[in-house]
Design a protein that fits this description.
Chain B: It is found in: Cell membrane; Membrane. Chain B: Keywords: Cell membrane, Membrane, Phosphate transport, Transmembrane, Transmembrane helix, Transport. Chain B: It comes from Meiothermus hypogaeus. The complex is a heterotrimer of chains A (405), B (306) and C (268). Chain A is built from 18 helices and 6 strands. With 405 residues, chain A is α+β, with helices and mostly antiparallel strands. Chain C is globular, with a radius of gyration of 18 Å. Chain C has one domain: P-loop containing nucleotide triphosphate hydrolases (Rossmann fold), CATH 3.40.50. At the A-B interface, helix 2, helix 3, helix 10, helix 11 and helix 12 of A face helix 2, helix 4, helix 5, helix 6 and helix 7 of B. Bound molecules: adenosine-5'-diphosphate (ADP) and magnesium ion.
Chain lengths: 405, 306, 268
C-alpha cells in the first residue's frame, strides 16, 4: 500500500460496493419514520372519512322533506318547519311545541340534523326518526359516484343524504341501539367523572410514593424492593389490572360495575406512571435548594412542602397530564370492571354505572352494523381531539414552566 | 461550647417532631400501595388459578387442543390461546424489529438534533394513539385491503391485527435501542472511522454489537407489550380460541379471550370464571418474566460503560 | 492582542523538510469550527520514517491539526477547511478523494485507549475485515501484535474480550489495531496521557521501533516525551504554527520567545 493508492481505489469494485451499501443504509434509516408518519396520516384521514356517509333513507313518521339553512337556524325552528310539512296547522304546532312532554318524546324519537347535502341541494336540515329504514349506507366516494343514479331511483318517501355523523347532536345524545340516535353524551360524562376520580385517588398516592422514595427512604432492601416493584407494575398489562379490579373491587368489595370500582382500578394502573414522573421531577431539584432551606431552619417536611414540591409542580403536572391521556384512552381494564354494560344515563355519583369513550367506541366497532362504524369513527375523532388537547396542554406546561437549574 | 445551653434550645431535633413523623408514616404508607397492588394481583390470580386446577388437571390445561370453557363439553387447552398470542405477537415483531432498529440507528447515528426531536415526536404520537383506534384501523381499513391480497383471509385475523400491533410497539424498540446505541462511547466510533470504516460499517460492526444487550432488552420489552396488548387483538384478531398457526384464521389471544369472557356474564366462583383468571395468571407470569429479563439485561450493559 | 501578533506570524523553520522527503505536506491550512477559527494558515511538512511531535499549550489546535491529516474532522458538524493537505502527492481534501479511503492509509491512535468490546483478535483484524480480507488474518494479527510489543502478553488469550486488558496493554492493542493494515503514516493524539509511567515508557520505546516501518506524528503536551522520542518538533500556539525544526536544536536554542517560554515551562 503505497503512494497514489487513494484515488485508484475509487475504481475498486469492492469499495464501490461498500459505498453503495453505505448510501442505501443512510436512506433506509429514515424509511420507518416516513412509514410511521404515513400510517398516522392514513389512520386520521380514514377515520375522518368514515365519519361521513351517503345514505338512502325511507321515512315513515316524518315528512321526508328537507329545509334550507336559510329557513331555519335552530333545532326548534326546524321542528316547526317539519311539523308544518307534516300538515299540522299553526295552532296544532303551537300547542305541540309548548307541551314539554310531546317535545321530549319527539326529541327522543327524532334527530334534527344538518346534512351536507340531500337530493334537494347542499346544506339542508332533515328530521330523522328512529323508525326510518336505512336502505343504503355508502362511503363518501362511493356515494358521490352513484349520487345521480341514487337520486333517480328514489321512491316516493325516500331521501338521499350526505350525512356528517359528527355533529353537535352526536355529542349531546345518549347511547342507543339505533345508530341515528346514538350519541356520546353518557360516555363523555363517564370519561370526565372517571378521570376526575382516578386522578383524585392516584395523584396523592403516586406523588406520596415519589416523595417517600426520593426524600425519606433509607437505602435498604425494602426501598429497593419498592422501587423494583414500581417498575414492574408499570409493565403489567392493563388487562391484568382489570382482572384485579374485577376480583377485588367489583366482586370482593361488592362495588359492582360502578364508577368507584373503575376509578380504583384505573388509579392503580396509572399510579406508577405518575410516581415515576414525580420522582424525576424531584430528582431534578438540586440539593443546594434543600440545603438552603435547612440552613434557614426548616424542618424536613417544611423543606419538602415549601421548597421542593413547588419546584416540581410543572414536572408533576406534565406527568399527570400524560397519565390522564393514557387513562382516557384505556378500554381493556374497564371492560373487565363493567364499563361494557349498556348504560343509558349520565352518572350521578361515584356509585353510578358508567361507560367511557374508548369503551363506547369498542362497543360500536363490535356492533357489526355499518352505521355503527360511522359513529365509532366519529367517537374516535372526539377521543383523538381530546387527547390532542391534553398533549398540547402537557407540551405547553413543559415549555412554559421549564426551569433550568 | 456550653453544652447545658445548647441542649435547651436544640432539644427538638429537626425532622423528629410528632407531626414530622406522621408525615413520614403517611408517605411510607402511600409507597406501600404499589407493593400491595402487586401482592393483590398475585393473590387474586393465583388463588383463582389454584381453585381452577383443583377441578381441571394440569395435563388438560397444557395439552388440550382447544379452549372452550363455555361449551357443554368444556376444554381447557391454554395452547390454543398461546398459539393465537404467538401469531399476533410474532407478526407484530416482524414489523417492529426492523423498523424499530432502523429508527434507533437513525436517532443515534444519523439524525441532526432538530430532526431527532421530530422523529421522537412522531414515535410519541404513535405511542399515544389509543389501542382501540388501532384496532378500528386494523379491522375496518387494513383487513378489507388484505382480504383482496390474501385469499382465504378471515375478517378477524392476526395478520392485520399484528401489522398494526407492530406500529404500536415500534416506539418501545426505537426508544430503548437508541438509548443503548447512544450509550456506546464516541471513542469507539472514532476508532472505527480511523480504521477506514464507512458509517454503515461503524453502525453495524461497532455500535450494534456494543449495544447488543440493550437492543435485545428493547425487543424483549416490546414482546412483553405485544403479549399484553388487548384491544387490537380483541377487535381485529378475533375471539375464537383454536389451536392453529395459520395466520389467516380467526384466532384468540390470551387478552382477547379475557375481554370476550369478561364482557359476557360469568358468575364469580364458576369454573369458567376461574378459567379466565388462570389465563390472566399465565399472561401475568409471561409479561413479568419478559420485563424482569429485559431489566436484568439493561442493568448489565449500564455497568459495562459506567 | 496576542492573537493578532500570532496571526501575522511567519513560522520559524529550522532545516525544513524537503517536499520529496515529506509523507504529508500541509499548505496554508485554515480550519473553522463554525465561526471559531482553530487553525491559522498552517504550513508544515512531516518527514517519512521519522517521529514528529506536535507540542503546545492546551487548546492551541494540536489535535485539530492532527485530525485534519486523516480527515477525522469531517465527522464534526460545521467544520470548514481551507488550504491543502497533500499525502504522497494527493490532496486528501480534493473532492475526488474519499475520506474513508484516506483513513485506511493513515492510522490513528487516540488519547484514551478505545478497544472495541470484542476479542483481542477481532480488535486487531478489524481494519482488515473491513477491507474484505479473509485469509492470513492470523499472521497479520501476530505481526501487528509483535510490532506493538504485546504479542508475548496476549498470545495465549487472543479470544478474550479486550476490555479486560490493563490500560497500557489496551493502548498497545490500539496501536496494533492501527498498524495491522500497514498504514504508511500513523497519527497519535497524546497516546500516553492516560497511562502510568511504566506503560508510557513501553509505548515510547515501541514508537521508536515503529519508525523503521512507519512515519509517525504524535501530539504530546509532555515536553520530555517530545525530547525523548521525536526527531522533529512542531510548536503551536493559539492555532498558529510558531516554530518547527529538529527537536534537539529547537529545544536547546528556540528562536521564538513563545517557544522558549513554553519549553522552559513558563506557560502551557
Ligand atoms: N469539535 C469542536 N467544536 C468546536 N470547537 C472545537 C472542537 N474541537 C476543538 N475545538 C476548539 O478548537 C481549539 C483547538 O482545540 P484542540 O485542537 O482540541 O486543541 P489541543 O488538542 O491543542 O488541546 C480549541 O479552542 C477548542 O475549543
Ligand atoms: Mg487535544
Amino acid at each position: 500500500m503505497q503512494r497514489g493508492l487513494i484515488q485508484d481505489s475509487s475504481q475498486n469494485p469492492q469499495k464501490q460496493q461498500r459505498d453503495r451499501i453505505n448510501r442505501v443504509f443512510a436512506r433506509a434509516v429514515v424509511v420507518p419514520t416516513v412509514i410511521a408518519l404515513a400510517l398516522i396520516a392514513v389512520l386520521l384521514l380514514d377515520t375522518l372519512y368514515d365519519t361521513v356517509s351517503v345514505q338512502v333513507v325511507e321515512v315513515t313518521e316524518t315528512s321526508g322533506k328537507s329545509f334550507a339553512l336559510g329557513q331555519a337556524l335552530t333545532a326548534d325552528q326546524v321542528i316547526r318547519l317539519e311539523l308544518a310539512a307534516q300538515g299540522k296547522s299553526e295552532q296544532e304546532i303551537a300547542a305541540f311545541m309548548s307541551d314539554p312532554d310531546e317535545m321530549r318524546i319527539f326529541r327522543l324519537r327524532n334527530r334534527v340534523e344538518l346534512m351536507w347535502a340531500t337530493q334537494d341541494g347542499p346544506l339542508r336540515w332533515v328530521v330523522s326518526s328512529l323508525d326510518d329504514t336505512r336502505i343504503k349506507n355508502l362511503s363518501l366516494i362511493e356515494g358521490l359516484r352513484q349520487w345521480n343514479e341514487l337520486k333517480q331511483s328514489l321512491n316516493e318517501n325516500q331521501q338521499l343524504r350526505l350525512n356528517p355523523w359528527l355533529d353537535y347532536s352526536f355529542l349531546t345524545r345518549d347511547p342507543s341501539r339505533n345508530p341515528i340516535s346514538a350519541g356520546l353524551r353518557v360516555a363523555l360524562f363517564g370519561t370526565i367523572w372517571l378521570l376526575t376520580m382516578t386522578l383524585l385517588i392516584s395523584i396523592p398516592i403516586g406523588v406520596g410514593t415519589a416523595i417517600y422514595l426520593e426524600e425519606y427512604a433509607p437505602k435498604n432492601r425494602l426501598t429497593r424492593f419498592i422501587e423494583v416493584n414500581l417498575r414492574n407494575l408499570a409493565g403489567v398489562p392493563s388487562i391484568v389490572f382489570g382482572l384485579l379490579g374485577l376480583a377485588v373491587f367489583v366482586r370482593g368489595m361488592q362495588l359492582g360495575p360502578t364508577l368507584m370500582a373503575a376509578a380504583l382500578t384505573m388509579a392503580l394502573l396509572i399510579m406508577p406512571t405518575i410516581s415515576i414522573a414525580a420522582r424525576e421531577a424531584l430528582r431534578s431539584v438540586p440539593d443546594s435548594m434543600r440545603l438552603a432551606a435547612y440552613a434557614l431552619g426548616a424542618t424536613k417536611w417544611q423543606m419538602i412542602s415549601k421548597v421542593v414540591l413547588p419546584a416540581t409542580i410543572p414536572g408533576v403536572a406534565t406527568g399527570v397530564i400524560l397519565a390522564a391521556a393514557r387513562a382516557i384512552g384505556e378500554a381493556a381494564p374497564l371492560l373487565m370492571v363493567g364499563a361494557a354494560a349498556y348504560v343509558a344515563f349520565i352518572p350521578r355519583g361515584p356509585l353510578s354505572e358508567y361507560t367511557v369513550l374508548p369503551v363506547q367506541i369498542y362497543l360500536w366497532i363490535s356492533a357489526n352494523l355499518s352505521e355503527f362504524a360511522n359513529t365509532a369513527a366519529a367517537g374516535i375523532v372526539v377521543l383523538l381531539l381530546t387527547l390532542g388537547g391534553l398533549y398540547a396542554l402537557a407540551f405547553w406546561v413543559r415549555r412554559k414552566y421549564r426551569v433550568e437549574w | 461550647m456550653n453544652t447545658s445551653t445548647s441542649t435547651t434550645w436544640a432539644s427538638k431535633k429537626p425532622g423528629r417532631s410528632p407531626g414530622e413523623r406522621l408525615v413520614e408514616a403517611i408517605l411510607f404508607a402511600t409507597s406501600l400501595v404499589s407493593v400491595l397492588t402487586t401482592a393483590a394481583v398475585i393473590v387474586v390470580l393465583f388463588s383463582e388459578t389454584f381453585q381452577f386446577f383443583l377441578r381441571v388437571p394440569l395435563t388438560e390445561f397444557l395439552f388440550a387442543p382447544e379452549w372452550t370453557p363455555l361449551f357443554a363439553e368444556p376444554r381447557y387447552g391454554i395452547g390454543a390461546l398461546l398459539a393465537g398470542t404467538f401469531l399476533f405477537t410474532a407478526i407484530g415483531l416482524v414489523i417492529a424489529i426492523p423498523l424499530g432498529l432502523l429508527t434507533a440507528a437513525y436517532l443515534a447515528e444519523y439524525a441532526p438534533h432538530e430532526q431527532s426531536i421530530r422523529v421522537k415526536g412522531i414515535m410519541e404520537l404513535l405511542e399515544g394513539v389509543p389501542t382501540v383506534v388501532f384496532g378500528y384501523f386494523a379491522l375496518l381499513f387494513l383487513t378489507p385491503i388484505l382480504q383482496n391480497l390474501i385469499p382465504g383471509l378471515n375478517l378477524f385475523n392476526p395478520i392485520s391485527a399484528g401489522l398494526v400491533l407492530g406500529f404500536a410497539i415500534l416506539p418501545y424498540i426505537s426508544n430503548v435501542a437508541s438509548d443503548a446505541m447512544m450509550a456506546v462511547p464516541r471513542s469507539l466510533r472514532e476508532a472505527a472511522y480511523a480504521l477506514g470504516a464507512t458509517k454503515f460499517e461503524v453502525v453495524t460492526k461497532v455500535v450494534f454489537p456494543a449495544a447488543v444487550s440493550g437492543i435485545v432488552a428493547a425487543i424483549i420489552l416490546a414482546t412483553s407489550r405485544a403479549v399484553g396488548e388487548t384491544m387490537i387483538a380483541a377487535i381485529a384478531a378475533g375471539q375464537r380460541p383454536i389451536l392453529t398457526l395459520d395466520p389467516r384464521e380467526t384466532i384468540a389471544t390470551m387478552t382477547s379471550y379475557i375481554v370476550q369472557a369478561a364482557t359476557g356474564d360469568q358468575p364469580a366462583g364458576s369454573l369458567a370464571s376461574r378459567a379466565l383468571f388462570s389465563v390472566g395468571a399465565t399472561l401475568f407470569l409471561l409479561t413479568l418474566g419478559f420485563n424482569i429479563l429485559a431489566q436484568r439485561i439493561v442493568e448489565r450493559y449500564r455497568e459495562r460503560y459506567e | 492582542m496576542v492573537q493578532e501578533v500570532a496571526i501575522g506570524h511567519e513560522t520559524v523553520r529550522w532545516e525544513p523538510v524537503p517536499a520529496e522527503d515529506a509523507v504529508v505536506q500541509v499548505q496554508n491550512l485554515n480550519l473553522f469550527y463554525g465561526k471559531h477559527q482553530a487553525l491559522y494558515n498552517v504550513s508544515v511538512n512531516f518527514p517519512r520514517n521519522k517521529i514528529t511531535a506536535i507540542i503546545g499549550p492546551s487548546g492551541c489546535g494540536k489535535s485539530t491539526l492532527l485530525r485534519s491529516l486523516n480527515r477525522m474532522n469531517d465527522l464534526v458538524p460545521g467544520v470548514r477547511l481551507e488550504g491543502k493537505v497533500i499525502y504522497e502527492g494527493v490532496d486528501i481534501y480534493d473532492t475526488q478523494v474519499d475520506p474513508v479511503e484516506v483513513r485506511r492509509h493513515i492510522g490513528m491512535v487516540f488519547q484514551k485507549p478505545n478497544p472495541f468490546p470484542k476479542t483481542i483478535f477481532e480488535n486487531v483484524v478489524f481494519g482488515l475485515r473491513l477491507q474484505g480480507q479473509k485469509t492470513g488474518l492470523d499472521e497479520v494479527a501476530q505481526r501487528a501484535l509483535e510490532r506493538a510489543a504485546l504479542w508475548d502478553e496476549v498470545k495465549d488469550k487472543l479470544g478474550e474480550i479486550a476490555l479486560r486488558l490493563s490500560g497500557g496493554q489496551q493502548q498497545r492493542l490500539c496501536i496494533a489495531r492501527a498498524i495491522a493494515t500497514e498504514p504508511p503514516l500513523l497519527l497519535l493524539d497524546e497516546p500516553t496521557s492516560a497511562l502510568d509511567p511504566i506503560a508510557t515508557e513501553r509505548i515510547e520505546s515501541l514508537l521508536i521501533e515503529l519508525k523503521q516501518h512507519y512515519s509517525l506524528v504524535i501530539v504530546t503536551h509532555n515536553m520530555q516525551q517530545a525530547a525523548r522520542i521525536a526527531d522533529r518538533t512542531v510548536f503551536m500556539h493559539l492555532g498558529v504554527l510558531i516554530e518547527e525544526g529538529p527537536t534537539n536544536q529547537m529545544f536547546t536554542n528556540p528562536r521564538d520567545k513563545r517557544t522558549e517560554a513554553y519549553i522552559t515551562g513558563r506557560f502551557g
